[in-house]
Design a protein that fits this description.
heterodimer; A: mainly alpha; Non-ribosomal Peptide Synthetase Peptidyl Carrier Protein, Chain A; 4 helices; B: alpha/beta; Peroxisomal Thiolase, Chain A, domain 1; 2 domains; twelve-stranded mixed beta sheet; two-stranded antiparallel ribbon; 12 helices; PKS_Beta-ketoAc_synthase_dom (chain B); Thiolase-like (chain B); acyltransferase (chain B); Ketosynthase chain-length factor (chain B)
């Protein structure tokens, strides 16, 4: 598994966990837009953060599910993964 | 019993849209064709994980593709019972030509559903994650998907309906009570309500919950499993699916050019407790009398009855006696039907499917038969074998719950200017 969360993986999780379909490239291009613009609600984001913790075996800060945009989430998650490496 | 009329001067409630997801058909056309022909679709339970349970026969909705009607993000976060409800609501809204965007105000449209068991399949999956892998593997949508109110909430969110909304957790009769609740909301000022019920009780955990009901049929041959009003009555067969409706204030509906399919004319509900079917005689009779009084109908006005038809001898007898008590001599003449013997009882949704059947029967001047039943006891004129041509202006729909609720709903052909 990648040691960094990518837009491709986040897009795949949004689809599997929340039924929100978005192309990885689109997610990256629009990474400063709010998750709600993609149709992802707060419970959906909570589920994605939980699934990321399970996949990486890492504890992600509790405020990760307060991230408003894909770019913010990637920063928070990858900071955790970097610090652990 | 409520005394104030369901449709007082000026604000009448009419059905302008119907959506059906039933074991015998998806969409009102397929549902009506199978219902009119008396097609029986009770069959072996094939839902995943159910094969080894002692419930052998049920009415399953097969070939249902929710993604054809509802977006994936609503499907991922909801149980099958909400998939049925959202799909049926979508069909009803299409039929009515109604949307929040096209309405005067989204606050004028509300949602009310009835639910008997909530999201059993989704809930079981997440609880298995909890005990199998740990709490970190339970998805957050578990918090809303299992809940009785999930379908109301999702229909409201998906459609943008912000009017008075609620859920009736009122036993099987709750399907009719939800219709009355919607009519009260119309009377209270709402322009339109999305109303109905859908259930998905054919999942392992849900079936195990039902195995405790002594009224559940254990007969293994589908055509013999659910035979109300006969000497072979041995309980009911459960089913999944449901029906949703758009009901509107009649004048508002007329102004926007919507077709009125039927008038929701009267309703009453009583409670006589569980485990005493003989007592439901008085409760059901009082409900019928209350519903007729509210509709301003005499017993002779009732052109047909869609029976509760539980197929437990004491309950069948009580229903026949309730009709005699409430309708007098007319009870021996009025045709009675129970199309649900062909598809099973979908708990709260059994009565909403009967409402859909009753509206279609009025529109087609045709009473559908009671599949699998060839001859009825208790002095009832039960429609068996083939559909029967009948001029139907007023139809009575009856429902009882296993826990003691009794409800009656009167539907009438809408006559503009009446009342």
């Amino acid at each position: 598994m990648d040691t960094q969360l990518t837009y491709a993986e986040l897009a795949s999780m949004m689809e599997r966990r929340a039924g929100v379909s978005v192309e990885p490239l689109q997610l990256e291009l629009r990474s400063a837009e709010r998750f709600t613009e993609f149709g992802l609600d707060s419970l959906g984001l909570l589920g994605i953060v939980g699934a990321l913790e399970n996949e990486y075996g890492a504890s992600i800060p509790a405020d990760a599910d307060a991230c408003k945009t894909p770019a913010e989430l990637l920063t928070v998650v990858n900071d955790v993964l970097k610090a652990r490496a | 019993m409520r005394r104030d009329p369901i449709s007082p001067a000026g604000r009448r409630t009419v059905i302008t849209g119907m959506g059906v997801v039933a074991p015998n058909g998806i969409g009102t056309d397929a549902f009506w064709k199978a219902t009119r022909e008396g097609v029986g679709v009770l069959d072996r339970v094939t839902r995943e994980g159910c094969a080894d349970l002692p419930l052998r026969v049920a009415g399953e909705v097969r070939g249902f593709d929710p993604a054809a009607l509802v977006e994936e993000r609503f499907l991922v976060q909801t149980d099958r019972f909400s998939h049925f409800a959202m799909a049926a609501a979508e069909l009803a809204l299409e039929d009515a030509g109604l949307s929040a965007e096209g309405a005067d105000s989204p606050y004028a449209i509300g949602v009310v559903t009835a639910a008997g068991s909530g999201g059993g399949e989704f809930g079981q999956r997440e609880l298995q994650q909890l005990w199998g892998r740990g709490p970190r593997f339970v998805g957050p949508y578990q918090s809303i998907a299992w809940f009785y109110a999930a379908s109301t909430g999702q229909i409201s969110i998906r459609g943008g309906f912000k009017g008075p909304s609620g859920v009736v957790a009122g036993d099987e009769a709750g399907g009719l009570d939800a219709m009355a609740h919607a009519a009260r909301s119309i009377r209270g000022g709402a322009d339109a309500m999305v109303v109905g019920a859908a259930e998905a009780p054919l999942a392992p955990y849900s079936i195990v919950c039902q195995l405790g009901y002594p009224e559940l049929s254990r007969i293994e041959e589908p055509h013999r499993a659910y035979l109300p009003f006969t000497g072979e009555a041995a309980g009911f067969v459960p089913a999944e699916g449901g029906a949703m409706f758009v009901v509107e204030e009649a004048e508002t509906a007329g102004r926007r050019g919507a077709r009125s399919r039927a008038l929701v004319a009267g309703h009453a509900a009583t409670f006589t407790g569980s485990k005493d079917w003989a007592a439901s005689r008085e409760g059901l009779a009082r409900a019928i009398q209350g519903a007729l009084a509210e509709a301003g109908c005499a017993p002779e006005d009732v052109d047909a009855v869609f029976a509760d038809a539980l197929a437990v001898p004491a309950a069948d007898r009580a229903e026949a006696l309730a009709l005699a008590d409430a309708l007098g001599k007319h009870a021996a003449r009025v045709p009675v039907t129970a199309p649900k013997t062909g598809i099973g009882r979908a708990y709260c949704a059994a009565s909403t499917l009967d409402v859909a059947g009753a509206v279609l029967a009025m529109e087609h001047s045709t009473l559908p038969p009671t599949p699998h039943v060839t001859e009825a006891d208790y002095g009832l004129d039960l429609v068996t074998g083939h559909a029967r041509p009948a001029e139907l202006r007023t139809v009575l729909v009856l429902s009882r719950g296993l826990l003691g609720s009794n409800s009656a709903l009167v539907l009438r052909q809408d006559e503009p200017g009446a009342r």
